[in-house]
Amino acid sequence: MVEVACITPLFVPGDRPERFAKAAAAGTDAVIIDLEDAVAPDNKAAARNAICQPGALPQGVDIFVRINDCQTPWFHDDITAVAKLQVTGILLPKSNSAADIREVLQHSPGSQVIALIETACGLAAAREIAQAAGMARLAFGSIDFCADLGIGHTRQALLAARSEIVLASRLAGLFAPIDGVTTAIDNTELIEDDARYARELGFRGKLCIHPRQLMPARRGFSPSADEISWAQRILAAGPHGAISVDGKMVDAPVRAQAQRILAFAAVAV
After folding, report:
1. Do 154 and 99 sit in the same domain of this protein?
2. Comparing 3-12, 49-58, 101-110, which segment has the lowest mean pLDDT?
3. Residue 142: which CATH number?
């Protein structure tokens, strides 16, 4: 399974239905209507009711709903409501085991599930979760993960976790995973750099919390001019055998990487 485009889903609070259409029109490739962290406990029922109203869900864009996790008192009401809606899939927070995925699918058969890895238990079970039937993709809930382990939200502290999530996705034949949010909304350089770093590790997407994050995140996932130029030189040198380009050996795996870069560049921002 080889995908050439990144995904930058945009969160919108489930208790702010007036924002649903605005989120869809912001240029994102998917909207995540959030019933979990963005909604206070006292507003959970109202948010659930809001997404079930006729015409509430935007058209023309993929819609995922982040429900409350399996251990919360809101899970069963959330999954029962969402199962009746025409949405693309379900974002399951604090996915800690394949049993959590099966619990979702028991109530909502056929759903595409994106499992958020947000805890030590979730990371330990990431390969099992990725292999679960009905899984669409893994995503990294890096902020919750740091809170669970009591570690800093830094690249060094999260390198092992990110690498394991990428590896688990590849072993299961899933699309490459989605990286967590950058909390800075207006620091476009940081957002772009975070996305570029995630791409380097093997992620092909980034969760966004504000429309202003979409473009810099996509730029970070887009191949640079130097990468594109390199890929073009590699493929222009010939399709077979081991040769030298720019003083470095080129063989089949290098050509495959060049092809991937140019395919990605063709659909990137």
Report:
1. yes
2. 3-12
3. 3.20.20.60
Same domain, residue pair 240 and 136: no
Cα-based torsion angle of the residue sequence 46, 137, 111, 181 in order, rounded to the nearest 10 degrees: 10
* Domain tally, the chain: 2
Q: Each residue of 217-234: pLDDT tens digit?
A: 999 997 766 666 766 776
42 shares its domain with 67 = yes
Same domain, 158 and 113: yes
Same domain, 249 and 159: no
**Is 3 contained in some domain?**
no
Same domain, 40 and 132: yes
If one compares 43 and 252, the residue with the highest pLDDT of the two is: 43
The two structure tokens encoding residue 199: 């791409």
Model confidence pLDDT, tens digit, residues 71-127: 999 999 999 999 999 999 999 999 999 999 999 999 999 899 999 999 999 999 999
Q: List the domain range (segments joined by +) for residue 123.
A: 10-222
Give tens-digit pLDDT for 69-86: 999 999 999 999 999 999
